[in-house]
Amino acid sequence: MRKFRIGVVGIRFGMFHLKTLVNMEQAQLVGIADMAADNLVETAANFKAAAYRDGIEMMDQENLDAIRAGAINLKAHL
User: Fold this and answer.
1) For residues 38 and 77, which has the higher predicted lDDT (pLDDT)?
2) How many CB atoms lie within 10 A of CB 59?
3) Coil, strand or helix at 39
4) CB neighbours (10 Å) of residue 61?
5) What is the spatial distance between Cα 68 and Cα 34, in angstroms, rounded to a whole number?
6) What is the tens place of the pLDDT at every residue in 3-28?
């Protein structure tokens, strides 16, 4: 079965999505982007995903199939 490569933007409001995605058989969480989170690197490591401060860079680097916006102000993260 093909897994969809997914990135999440925003940790604070995206934590629920992170926890859900890692348990979905058809999803592969490959990147997390958050420009403000102090715990970005630690969180990404815990979820076995790459950490990015810039959502555009994550999109450029990860060949994503989908993005889940867990940020209230998505424009600020991109």
Assistant:
1) 38
2) 17
3) coil
4) 14
5) 12
6) 999 999 988 777 888 888 889 999 99
Task: Determine contact, residues 29/21, Cβ cutoff 8 Å.
Answer: yes
Q: The tokens of 24 are what? A: 């979905």
Q: What is the DSSP letter of 27?
A: E
| Cα gap 8→29, rounded to integer Å | 8
Distance CA 57, CA 3 (A): 21
Please give the model's pTM, rounded to 2 decimal places.
0.84
- Mean per-residue pLDDT over the chain, rounded: 87
> Which residues fall within 8 angstroms of residue 34, CB to CB, at 6 or more apart?
9, 10, 11, 12, 14, 40, 52, 53, 71, 77
| Residue 41, token pair as written in the block | 């690197």
Q: Sheet of 4-9: strands edge to edge?
A: 50-52, 27-33, 4-9, 66-69
